[in-house]
Amino acid sequence: MTDTEPMTDEQRELLHSEAVSITADLVSIDSTNTGDPATIGDGETRVCRRIAEYLDEVGIPSELVESVPGRGSLFARVDGSDAGAGGLVVHGHVDVVPAVAEDWTVPPFAGEIREGWLYGRGTVDMKNMIGMMLAVVRHYRREGIVPRRPLLLAFFADEEAAGTMGAQWVVRERPEIFDGMTHALSEVGGWSVPVAGRRLYPIAVAEKGVAWARVSAKGTAAHASRPTPDNAVAAIAGAVHRVSSLDFPVAPTEANTALAAAVGKIAGASGDVAELPSHLGVLGHFGPLVEASLSHTASPTILSAGYKTNVIPTEAFAEIDCRVLPGGEDTFRAEIERELGPDVTVDWIWQPPIAAPADDPLVSVIREAVRESDPDALVVPYLLPASTDNKHLAPLGIHGYGFVPLRVPDEFDVFGHFHAVDERVPVDALHFGADVLARVLRSA
After folding, report:
1. Could you give the CA distance from residue 337 to residue 345 in angstroms, rounded to a whole number?
2. pTM for the full model?
3. Averaged over 311-331, what is the pLDDT?
4. What is the residue-wise DSSP string for 334-363?
5. What is the longest distance spanned by two Cα atoms in the chain?
6. How far apart are CA 384 and CA 269, in angstroms?
7. CB neighbour list of residue 257: distance below 8 Å, 6 or more residues apart
């Protein structure tokens, strides 16, 4: 078949079958990332070696890169027909969060299919994308299809622990792997959401920055019966309360402006970003995710102080998870430090927000690819309030987008199954996703 000929029924059936079987196979390899290097095994490398076998079968060479033994990431290039086009990194992470088997109704690492659903840790986060990627490139090789632009297939370790031993390490130690790449496609987006009798498919064109504040206060140790004016616990408690009470305003970003315009048409509203919070109900279970993306946030997560009730300690600590909108890079930390006040000190772990153009031609390609399978679909840009490995590629000048295509039952909340018990995906959603991804990667 040529690049423009439609697939035969036999070709599509094989594409669908492989998207499901490869995903199930990869789920069966336990690649749990506990976040503690002492308890992480070699599951990531084992997944990568299995992926390499699938690529080898159709003549695609790959390279395994390990930050430390067992913490593997894998890379493979697929040539494009337009040698001058910027390359597309298509990536997924091979690690998964832990699963307590006793809490599940099915074994979390069996890759079982029950009543049309594929169960297991990683079925939505995100071995499903890897299974579809492999099914698509294997289909290309069997049928002689050459994508328009060069593709870099990337399978990263350690995404579930901030990518320190995965994408971040590879970008720092082996940046040449990404030579010629201008765009990237990965999580989090692409699943269907019922909206006003249609299906909306969100595409993440931006991600909030991550700002983790480690706050500390020091004071004079004393018997608790004799209060001191510099009580470290009181200083920390007051500082944390002030920050947690902040009411950050809704701020316009390119992604939220595009989303607000779409919601405005659906809800019969103005489409102004400032009005978006009052219309989130039309987005159903996607609404809470959008709500978190409209402004900066600051969530206290850890408090630590003292060792005995009748002893005033010399130190107290707090940790605050802050998420920062694009455009807030230069002012956010100073604003938080003002609210914390002069009686505490702050150390920051900082990863800036990223934003890619919402009107990039890749977005148009994705929109048309979805509509071929779902003609009435709405493909709408949004801002992800969390983080993906796209953040690590951004310093290389690579624009990252989040879109894993899945058409799911209206009541099924895909994002709600990230890291959840009985994580699962409909088998026919993988069929849909493989069809869409095959179109996207061919013509992007």
Report:
1. 8
2. 0.93
3. 95
4. HHHHHHH-TT-EEEEEEE--EE--TT-HHH
5. 85
6. 23
7. 273
